[in-house]
Specification:
The chain is an alpha/beta fold and about 375 residues long. The chain is about 30% helix and about 25% strand. The chain has a seven-stranded mixed β-sheet, sandwiched between helices. Strands 12-11-10-13-16-18-17 form a seven-stranded mixed β-sheet, sandwiched between helices. The protein has a two-stranded antiparallel ribbon with strand order 8-9.
Length: about 375
């Protein structure tokens, strides 16, 4: 299928805009560097990690004949975009989406990876490849040069004996990792790849935070979330039963765990589209003894929730989409919060003050009042009309 057209790929259901693209030069370079390996791979020997919207997976299938491809994407929107793009290209049966682990990587001999920006995410991915893939696995890890650092080579060198670097092309480069370091089973528990999720106690707020490699902020508590924690006592916690509280874009689950600890009678739903965030939040709930009252689900915004079904939503929205500063994801979260809140329900939001979200929240959700402001962040409460 040599006429495969990367320009037809879409980001949907992720945010789409004129300056946001579904594929980039790094995708093309990874595929070109891995071409011989892909064409010699047998069915089921190719694994793709962190494919943004399907360019690597579908390119490997359409251009290089790879079959039985196994795929893991942290972002649910990326997973859904891959499925839609595959259907549009007539390649729906070319791959399977799986969780990060043995089923994904067992016997893999060729692994394609769009490099994550987080070194912790790269560490967990590389360690999992070495733990489960074939002894002769080759990892082709590429990205845009402006987002690559020598520290990425250092991470890969923990797990691979050889790292080769491609020539630069269109401001992109590929690291080719081979000769995986053997991991004696009896030592597995002492090595980094066995240490996920990692957990850290925060006595100042009475929480233990657990995190997988790709989870935002790791085991720390980011300063926006930490500021919003100061307002938990002012939130409407009369929301119980089916109208329980929601931690939207929960990350490692800090807000959900803190609210549940403070209010033993409340039930909380924590949602995030990141597979790493969901796994992290579940571990955080267990570590804080609230797993029986906090349900953690992977969802794109609040797609799985009915209209007018919640009395309280907490939100610390991201202001980046990948490497781009973009308000689109926050606006998407505001829209869905408005849909899910019942009349009179509250949306508590913390945001970087320079973003000026108050007028948008007034329009989309309802009357919005500033309840706190420090040197960097603003906290608002919006009441659903």
């Amino acid at each position: 299928m040599s006429d495969f057209d990367f320009e037809r790929l879409r980001r949907w259901p992720d945010v789409e805009a004129a300056n946001l693209f579904a594929s980039d030069a790094a995708d093309h370079l990874i595929l070109d560097e891995a071409a011989d390996a892909l064409e010699s791979a047998r069915p089921g020997e190719v694994v793709v990690l962190e494919d943004h919207y399907g360019a690597l997976t579908l390119g490997a299938s359409a251009l290089h004949g790879a079959t039985g491809i196994r795929v893991h994407q942290d972002a649910l929107s990326g997973e859904q975009a891959l499925a839609r793009n595959a259907a549009g290209a007539g390649l729906a049966g070319a791959f399977r989406s799986l969780d990060l682990g043995e089923e994904l990587l067992a016997g893999a001999r060729v692994v394609l990876l769009q490099l994550p920006r987080s070194l912790s995410a790269l560490d967990e991915l590389a360690s999992t490849v070495v733990r489960f893939a074939a002894p002769d696995v080759r990892l082709f890890a590429g990205g845009r040069i402006k987002h690559m650092t020598t520290a990425m080579n250092t991470v890969l060198e923990r797990y691979f004996g050889r790292i080769d670097v491609s020539h630069a092309r269109q401001k992109s480069r590929v690291l080719v990792a081979t000769e995986p370091r053997s991991v004696p089973r009896e030592l597995a528990g002492e090595l980094p790849h066995a240490a996920w999720p990692r957990c850290e106690e925060h006595p100042d707020v009475g929480l233990t935070v657990c995190a997988h490699g790709a989870a935002f902020a790791g085991t720390t508590i980011d300063i926006g979330t930490r500021y919003l924690l100061e307002f938990l006592g002012r939130m409407n916690t009369d929301a119980r039963g089916d109208e329980g509280a929601i931690d939207l874009g929960c990350g490692t689950g800090v807000l959900a765990a803190a609210l549940a600890l403070r209010n033993p009678g409340i039930r909380v739903l924590a949602t995030d589209q990141s597979a790493a965030a969901v796994a992290s939040a579940r571990a955080t709930m267990i570590a804080n003894g609230v797993a029986d009252r906090v349900t953690v689900v992977r969802d794109d915004t609040l797609t799985g929730r009915p209209d007018a079904s919640a009395g309280l939503i907490m939100l610390n929205p991201p202001f980046h989409i990948g490497a781009s500063v973009h308000a689109g994801i926050a606006l998407k979260l505001f829209d869905d919060a408005a849909r899910v809140l019942r009349p009179g329900g509250e949306l508590w939001t913390v945001w970087n003050s320079h973003l000026g979200y108050r007028s948008v929240l007034n329009r989309v959700v309802g009357p919005t009042h500033q309840v706190g402001r420090n040197a960097k962040f603003t906290v608002t409460v919006s009441t659903r009309r």
